[in-house]
């Protein structure tokens, strides 16, 4: 392979690798999200023993800001607690779940069917560590007993924790053996893999916005690009776009979370500094311009804006560009005062013009001098015509 063909192949290979990487990241994110959203995993049919009470605690919604979780408690007593029909309770039963705050116990009167009740359970964790925040209920105590007063009798209970909280992965560890009168369970919840992928993508887009603004402002400050005032609106819009992106982060992390200190605040700072740097570049590159009448002028007099500002190399580039641009040429013609047709310019009227007598007196020597002074190519006559005043009509 020759050097030329290899040089042509390198850009194509580079962009092919970039496209393959993007596709791989996309498929990986879909796989992680699908694996974390597998709601059918872990479902088994459970039947309580005749002398035990089965209590199913289903997590509905986790509230990190208040350190609480909404749960639904379902009670399934064994056959010894039911009447002959097997549908209603043969005696009154009370189920106690702690640590709950909305309703501490459920009383099931005799002759009623088994029901469920909703409550809130306290969590222990730190919401400021989003998206790696973890919350635990240690322990979740469930007690079932019958009777009242001195006739209270506790019964063996079994607790099942159903992990159906959207966006969370639920794990539980039984701290006491099955069949004991009081069962304790340690429940832990943390963010699912799909939520982590979604959060990482949003944070990456915020960082990319800041990087783009910094790149544009730095290149402009180094005079590698010219200033366009439209870019100021673009940068200001990105500053206000960060807050909505932060607010749609899954789980709504509290204000002041570590993600704000490590990402959000620095993204906003970078955008604001980039905007300020771009404003400085605008002020620097247009320092020699003033507003006069209906258009821009140089402070030293009428002229093309920006033609005498900047370093010598930039001024030369400006002249080369504007010399070929019809728009700027037309602007110069509008700024130059037009004299009426047939009038005599003041500068040309003051130039002395030799008469015929003076021309004859010079003789051949004067004619030779004029011929020598005239440029090659017949421009001497044109030069003489410009010096002669225009005839007055």
Automatic annotation (TrEMBL):
Keywords: Membrane, Signal, Transmembrane, Transmembrane helix
Domain of life: Bacteria
Location of region: Disordered: 293-393
Annotated signal peptide: 1-34
Biased composition range(s): Basic and acidic residues: 314-336, 351-363, 379-393
Ranges annotated as biased composition (Gly residues): 293-304
Transmembrane segments: 195-219, 231-249, 255-280
Name the record gives this protein: Integral membrane protein
Taxonomic source organism: Rhodococcus hoagii (strain 103S)
Classification of source organism: Bacteria, Bacillati, Actinomycetota, Actinomycetes, Mycobacteriales
């Amino acid at each position: 392979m020759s050097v030329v063909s290899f040089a042509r192949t390198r850009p194509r290979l580079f962009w092919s690798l970039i496209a393959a990487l993007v596709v791989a990241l996309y498929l990986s994110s879909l796989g992680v999200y699908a694996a974390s959203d597998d709601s059918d995993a872990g479902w088994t049919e459970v039947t309580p023993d005749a002398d035990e009470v089965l209590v199913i605690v289903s997590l509905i919604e986790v509230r990190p800001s208040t350190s609480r979780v909404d749960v639904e408690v379902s009670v399934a007593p064994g056959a010894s607690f039911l009447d002959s029909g097997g549908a209603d309770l043969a005696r009154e039963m009370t189920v106690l779940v702690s640590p709950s705050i909305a309703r501490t116990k459920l009383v099931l009167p005799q002759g009623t069917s088994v029901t469920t009740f909703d409550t809130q359970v306290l969590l222990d964790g730190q919401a400021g560590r989003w998206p790696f925040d973890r919350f635990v209920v240690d322990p979740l105590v469930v007690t079932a007993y019958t009777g009242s007063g001195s006739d209270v009798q506790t019964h063996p209970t079994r607790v099942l924790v159903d992990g159906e909280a959207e966006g969370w992965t639920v794990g539980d560890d039984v701290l006491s053996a099955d069949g004991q009168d009081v069962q304790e369970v340690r429940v832990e919840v943390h963010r699912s893999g799909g939520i982590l992928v979604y959060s990482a993508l949003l944070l990456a887009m915020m960082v990319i916005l800041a990087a783009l603004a910094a790149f544009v402002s730095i290149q402009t400050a180094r005079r590698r690009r010219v200033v366009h005032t439209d870019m100021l609106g673009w940068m200001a819009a990105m500053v206000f776009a960060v807050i909505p992106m932060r607010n749609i982060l899954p789980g709504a992390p509290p204000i002041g979370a570590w993600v704000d200190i490590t990402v959000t605040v620095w993204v906003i700072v970078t955008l604001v500094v980039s905007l300020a740097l771009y404003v400085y570049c605008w002020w620097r590159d247009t320092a020699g311009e003033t507003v006069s009448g209906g258009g821009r002028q140089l402070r030293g007099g009428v002229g093309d804006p920006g033609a005498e500002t900047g370093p010598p190399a930039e001024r030369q580039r400006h002249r080369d560009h504007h010399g070929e641009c019809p728009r700027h040429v037309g602007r110069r013609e509008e700024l130059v005062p037009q004299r009426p047709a047939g009038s005599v310019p003041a500068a040309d009227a003051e130039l002395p013009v030799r008469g015929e007598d003076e021309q004859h007196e010079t003789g051949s020597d004067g004619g030779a001098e004029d011929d020598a002074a005239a440029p090659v190519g017949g421009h001497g006559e044109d030069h003489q015509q410009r010096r002669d005043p225009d005839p007055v009509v």
